């Protein structure tokens, strides 16, 4: 695949090396990562987040705060679910929007694992702030 911003580089339909002709494609799957000629990973991230949802729902009963200590649940999240999402991420070139999308999904799962926190001043239950999640998971 040729990835180029130059439209002329993508005009021909095939590429020939010696006697072998290779067809040009807009995208292909390599090592479980979908690569496109525009170097866009939005669809890849979308499919990874679907896989994350499936793996989370499969392990949902194990990741409840009541079953195991929170720190163990966070470690299970990091070794099982996060691995599903980030496998092959070395090929990604993230924009700020995509990075934020991944961070939001990560915080969402961590909030479910950790559960609500009782506010010491008001005595009411509240969700953990992003900084508090980062301190727990770092």
General description of the model:
The protein has a two-stranded antiparallel sheet with strand order 1-2. Helix 1 (42-59) packs parallel to helix 3 and helix 2 (70-86) packs antiparallel against helix 3 (96-114). The chain folds into two domains: 1-39, no CATH class; 41-137, no CATH class. The chain contains four helices and six strands. By secondary structure, the protein is of the alpha+beta class. The mean pLDDT is 78. It starts with 13 loop residues before the first strand and ends with a helix.
Short structural summary:
By secondary structure, the chain is an alpha+beta fold.
Main sheet properties: 2 strands, antiparallel
What is the count of DSSP helices, taking H or I runs of 4+ residues?
4
Mean pLDDT level: 78
Number of domains: 2
Uncertain regions spanning at least 5 consecutive residues:
none
What is the 3D form?
Answer: elongated
**Overall strand count:** 6
| Distance between the first and last residues' Cα | 38 Å
How are helices and strands ordered from N to C? Answer: EEEEHHHEEH
- Fraction in helix: 40-55%
Q: Which strand order do you get reading across the main beta sheet?
A: 1-2
Strand content: 5-15%
Radius of gyration: 21 Å
Report the structural category. alpha+beta
């Amino acid at each position: 695949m040729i990835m180029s911003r130059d439209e002329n580089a993508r005009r021909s339909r095939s590429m020939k090396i010696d006697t072998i002709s290779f067809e040009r494609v807009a995208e292909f799957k390599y090592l479980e990562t979908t690569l496109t000629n525009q170097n866009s990973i939005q669809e890849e991230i979308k499919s990874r987040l679907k896989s994350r949802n499936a793996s989370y729902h499969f392990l949902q009963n194990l990741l409840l705060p009541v079953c195991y200590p929170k720190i163990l649940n966070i470690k299970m999240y990091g070794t099982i679910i996060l691995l599903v999402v980030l496998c092959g991420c070395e090929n990604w070139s993230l924009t700020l929007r995509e990075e934020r999308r991944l961070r939001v999904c990560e915080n969402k799962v961590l909030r479910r694992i950790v559960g609500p926190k009782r506010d010491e001043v008001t005595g009411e239950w509240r969700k953990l702030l992003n900084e508090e999640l980062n301190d727990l998971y770092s």
